[in-house]
Structures are given as C-alpha cells and as structure tokens.
C-alpha cells in the first residue's frame, strides 16, 4: 500500500511524515512537494520524493500515480487561489484512482460561520463529489499559533485579545500529525469526519496555565477589535495580516471553535498533550 502526503516539508506535513515512518516502511511512503530539493533528507531515508505543485496539474498526475491513500494538507491564500489549487489536487486524485483521501479541514466546517470555514466547507464538498472514500480531519487551533503572544508574555508583555469568553480547543501540531498518521495507516476510517480538539478553554484559562509554566503572572488585556487592530499594527504586524487576525478573534468570540469532541483522544488512543506540558514544549522550542 502506497501512502502519499502533500506539503510534506511544511510544519504539519513534516510531522505527519515523521509519525508515519514510525509504523510503516519508508518504501511505502511517498511525498509530494513543490520543491523536491527541500526533501532530500526524506529521500535519504528511503522515502520516494515526487514533484507536485497544486498550480501545475500535470505534476500532480505523476505525483499521485499508483497511490492508494492520500493526505491533502490544506493550502493557504485567498479563496480563489486555494479553491483552484484544491480542485486541481482532487481532480488529479480522481484521475489517478486514489482509493482514499484524508483532508485537513477546520472545526465544524460544514456549519460554522468562522471565517476560515467556508473555504474548507467548499473543499470538503469537492472531495465528496468524487465519491472517493474520505476522512475529514477538522483541526481546531494550534498551540503554535500563539507563539507570538507567548514570546511577548515571556518578556513581560500582557496577553492582548478581543476574543472575550470564546473558547478554543488548542492542540499541538504533533498530536494532530499523529492522529492523521493513524487515520492513513488504520482501518475503518472511510467516510468519516473527525473533530480534532483539545479541551475547550478561554484565553484566561490558557494564560493562567502559561503563568504557572513561566513562574510569573501574565495579565490578560481584553480589548475591542479596533483597539486590538491598533495594538497589533503598533507591534509591527503588516497591514495585510491585520484583517485575518481580527477575524480570528471575532470568530473565537462568537464560538466558532467551540466544539466538544473526544475524536482526537480516540484516534490517538490517549488524551491529547496536557495543557502545561504543551506550553512547556513550545517555550522550550522558542527559548
């Protein structure tokens, strides 16, 4: 059985590959990357490296040839770009007669009004139209998304948010990678939707734990969206990124990531990494 991971040199894809290599021979694993030279380390391990560019459909035909199980890691960009790229990938999978597609989606994509959900919903629907067996891995929010705020707290800055009492199911990329690898290598995952989340908590709960790990109090500063925008701009965030950050805060405030689920625990066969341990790992990475 041949398993292929797209985006295998990215932050999530590289971790999925690491997890897969713990349980399957390198000869069973194929990676599809835009820049094969960046995957020479994987080639040295015996992994087959193929050139696959979602903007170049012909490369995807050769990349997906002979593949049984495919993980499509979602791309990022404006709606038109990501839909074109995803449509190309799904069409290539269909032409290659791939037998199973796993796709990294977002929390409650089929119903959520969270600003990222509509594009993921459309991408899920594109896969459904193929009738290829699928698994939608609806990832909640990465702990790693908070690295900037954590770094600020480490040097005494307050935790700035306009998310109010909205709850998030923060989870480490490593846990999500392990879950994805288990779906790709396991049985019984055809036509499934998994809501992959840690325990739901507010910003205050997260920051309280962060203070415990750092050994000092970290203050939470709740502001409105306009003030949040001004603060982020003052901190050097480029104007092009500000709407995304504000939409994230608003989406969290409106409950866009509040989905209770134990799917992650089921796929891992254990609880997700505990809060304090996850924060400690990130702090060690950036220290």
Summarize the structure in words.
There is one protein chain. The protein is α/β, with parallel strands linked by helices. The protein is built from 12 helices and 9 strands. The chain has a 7-stranded parallel β-sheet with strand order 3-2-1-4-5-6-8, sandwiched between helices. Helix 3 crosses helix 4, helix 4 runs parallel beside helix 5 and helix 9 runs antiparallel to helix 10. The longest helix has 17 residues. It starts with a strand and ends with a helix. The mean pLDDT is 97. This is SDR family oxidoreductase. It comes from Lysinibacillus xylanilyticus.
Keywords for this entry:
single chain; 287 residues; alpha/beta; seven-stranded parallel sheet; two-stranded parallel sheet; 14% strand
Question: How many helix segments?
Answer: 12
The general outline is: globular
What structural class results from the helix and strand content?
A: alpha/beta
Strand fraction equals: 5-15%
Mean pLDDT: 97
InterPro entries: NAD(P)-bd_dom_sf (IPR036291), NmrA-like (IPR008030), NmrA-type_oxidoreductase (IPR052718)
Organism: Lysinibacillus xylanilyticus
Domain NmrA-like: 2-248
Protein name: SDR family oxidoreductase
Quick recap of the structure?
The protein is 43% helix and 14% strand.
Helix-strand blueprint:
Blueprint: E1 3-6, H1 13-20, E2 29-33, H2 40-44, E3 48-51, H3 57-63, E4 69-72, H4 79-95, E5 100-106, H5 117-128, E6 134-139, H6 147-154, E7 159-161, H7 173-185, E8 192-196, H8 203-214, E9 220-222, H9 225-234, H10 242-253, H11 263-268, H12 275-286
Parallel strand pairs: 1-2, 1-4, 2-3, 4-5, 5-6, 6-8, 7-9
């Amino acid at each position: 059985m041949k398993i292929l991971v797209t985006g295998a040199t990215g932050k999530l894809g590289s971790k999925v590959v690491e997890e897969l290599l713990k349980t399957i021979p390198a000869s069973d694993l194929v990676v599809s990357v835009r820049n094969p030279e960046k995957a020479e380390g994987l080639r040295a391990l015996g992994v087959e490296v193929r050139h696959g560019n979602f903007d170049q459909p012909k490369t995807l035909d050769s990349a997906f040839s002979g593949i049984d199980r495919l993980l499509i890691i979602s791309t990022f960009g404006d709606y038109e770009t990501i839909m074109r790229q995803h449509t190309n990938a799904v069409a290539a999978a269909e032409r290659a007669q791939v037998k199973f597609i796993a796709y990294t989606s977002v929390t409650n994509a089929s119903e959520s009004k969270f600003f990222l959900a509509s594009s993921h919903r459309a991408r899920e629907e594109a896969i459904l139209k193929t009738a290829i067996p699928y698994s939608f891995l609806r990832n909640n929010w990465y702990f790693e998304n908070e690295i900037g705020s954590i770094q600020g707290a480490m040097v005494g800055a307050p935790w700035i948010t306009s998310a109010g009492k909205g709850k998030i199911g923060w989870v480490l990329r490593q846990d999500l990678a392990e879950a994805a690898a288990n779906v790709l290598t396991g049985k019984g995952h055809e036509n499934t939707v998994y809501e992959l989340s840690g325990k739901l908590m507010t910003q205050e709960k997260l920051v309280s734990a962060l203070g415990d790990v750092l050994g000092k109090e970290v203050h939470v500063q709740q502001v409105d969206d306009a003030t949040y925008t001004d603060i982020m701009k003052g901190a050097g965030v480029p104007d092009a990124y500000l709407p995304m950050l504000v939409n994230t805060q608003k989406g969290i405030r409106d409950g866009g990531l509040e989905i209770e689920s134990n799917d992650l625990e089921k796929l891992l066969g254990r609880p997700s990494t505990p809060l304090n341990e996850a924060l400690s790992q990130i702090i060690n990475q950036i220290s």
